[in-house]
Amino acid sequence: MGYSKGRSYAPTFTIKTIWGLAKSPELALDDDTLYSIIYRETGKDSMRQLSQKEINKVCHALSALKDSAKGNGGSGRTDTGGNKLTKAKRQKIYRLTGELGWNNNNARINGFVKKMFGVERLEWLNNEQCSKLIEMLKKMVERETAKKDGDGVEGKASPVHAGADKGH
C-alpha cells in the first residue's frame, strides 16, 4: 500500500484492507454493519462482487469513520464521540430510551437511528435529526404507556399532541 518516489498513484486496497479497517479497535464493526456500509457505498451486498474502484470507495469510507472515531475528523465531536451541539438533546433521548427499556442495549438505539436516518450512531445525528428522534421516541413512550394502562392510543395521545403542536 505504499507510494513510489516520483509516481503519483493511489494505494491498492484489497478485501483484506476492508476487513482490517472494519475490525480495527476504533471501529470494531460487526459483519452486518460492515456489509451495510458496503451496500450503502456500492449498492452491492457481496465483497467479491466489488470492482477495484468500489473497494477503494469502501476503504475511504471506513477510513473516514475510523478517523472520526479517533477524533481526527475535525468534525467538532467531543472525545466521547458526540456532537457538542446535540449533547442536551442526546440526554433527552437517553431518558426516553430508558423509559422504553432500551438503555441496556446500545445497539438497539443505534439500529433505530440507522433505520430512520441512515446514520450509524446516535452521537452522529445533527440537531434537526435529534429533534425528530425525540418526537418519535415521545410517541413510542406514549403508546407503551397506553398499552400498559389498557387505554386506547387515540384517546390518550390526542390532548398531548394538541398542546405540543402549539409550542412548535
TrEMBL record:
Pfam families: GemA. Residues 145-154 have a biased composition (Basic and acidic residues). Residues 145-168 are annotated as: Disordered. This is Mu-like prophage protein gp16.
